[in-house]
Amino acid sequence: MLSLIVFLPLAAAAVLAVVPSIGAAAARWAWVAVSVVELLLVGVLWAGYEDPGPNGLAFEEQVPWIPGVNSSYHVGVDGLSLPLLAMTAVVFLACAVHALRDADRPRVQAALFLFLQGVSLGVFVAADLILFFVFFDLSIVGMYFVIAGWGHGNAVRSALKFFLYTFLGSLALLLGFIGLYVAAAPHTFDIPELVAAAPLAGDPLTGGLVLAAILVGLAVKTPTVPFHTWLPPAHTDAPATGSAVLAGVLLKMGTYGFVRIAMPILPEAWRAWAWVIVAVGVVSVLYGAFVALAQTDLKRMIAYTSVNHMGYIVLALGAVGVLAEGAAQARSVAVTGAVVQMVSHGLITAALFLLAGVMQARAGTYDMGSYGGLAAPAPRYAALFAVGAFASLGLPGFSGFIAEFQIFAGSIAVAPVTAIALPGILVTAALFLRALQRVFTGPAAGHTPGFADLQGRELWSVGPLLALSLLIGVLPRVLLEVVEPASSALVSLVGR
């Protein structure tokens, strides 16, 4: 089943790429159809999922691949990866619906996004370091062509900056993976085997160096301060669907790598570096919020809020490594909050970037000063943007509140100093309220007269993303029942 989920979009992408006779409409609807099937398949997985236990994987498949280095095609899911698999399927379906009217090379666009969908899903099911790295690197290549080929502004330069930064990070990641392979006895790239072996236990120097390489590689993709500088231009110049996938899915590969690879395989090194990781998380939260507050470009503002929101995840995961007497439950709550934040940020920020793309499509600018009173001609647009803004700032009733509450409840219980990141929530609220006021209230100004309200495809792409955020906020047990057992298992590994 997992192989079908990964390779179906890759096969569809290959067909679209090599058959030039496929028409524009057929290509667009093929993208939607494949994305619908993917979501249904993930739904079947979710319905049949049972917790596999510590260091176990459900729906596991393993086939020898590169036997000389003990690397296999090994895939599976647990409570840390299944929610991200589902979120990925939802975000790509939303992008497929949003792009139904795109006229710029729709066949090639559909093929490229289906390729991105396949490799993104592959990252979240990979249980072998080489397989993880292959999918991880291919996602960089796919997003480079999305930004360069369908972006605007200085798209080629932004795409090149994105590629160079993230590819350099992936080289550091590969170096860390090789370090794990060399340290393991017997040598292996299999993630469950490495977790069970804890290959660098008792060697703090080598373990710290290997963890440093892995952390740098994943931090660039996340991105955290100071590795974030590629993110704002990439988002600003990317197409709306590209920004939605970049923020909603690709950024999660970094933080997912923390919980799947760095924390369980190198628990001693993670504990040794815990305060550094907490500090990076706190700085990312506050820096991202304050810099976002200073922006006049709406899309750039949303991009910096991603630095802020991903900082919450890093903060929580760092706190897990801070050992405290009797704090296992609090640390488990922090991990659960981090995973929920990955899902929540993916849904909400993807919706906000799709909404921001409407501005570019209608008026050719994201400058907030070029609008005013937009709620009058575009009430549906104003309503959905307001919902997205309140969801992003962590209003109770939405998934962001569930995630941030758990992150801070768990982190502060373990390391009270993490409370200094709380003002980030206040600043985020201020920047979104300011954006709503400048763009949607007051007299009509700038590009507002004649601004067309949301069309059906735009409503059906953004609406379900925000509805899912609301569903998680109101009925969080649907998600938490899957995540919590895996979080507890991860905490027991880090604390061993």
From TrEMBL:
Name this polypeptide is given: NADH-quinone oxidoreductase subunit M
Transmembrane segments: 80-100, 112-136, 162-182, 194-220, 240-261, 273-295, 301-323, 335-358, 378-395, 407-433
Signal peptide: none
Keyword set includes Cell cycle: no
UniProt topology in membrane: Multi-pass membrane protein
Alphabetical keyword list: Membrane, Transmembrane, Transmembrane helix
Location(s) in or outside the cell: Endomembrane system; Membrane
Organism: Kocuria gwangalliensis
Top-rank taxon: Bacteria
Stretches assigned to coiled coil: none
Family according to the record: Belongs to the complex I subunit 4 family.
Record-annotated NADH:quinone oxidoreductase/Mrp antiporter transmembrane domain positions: 126-422
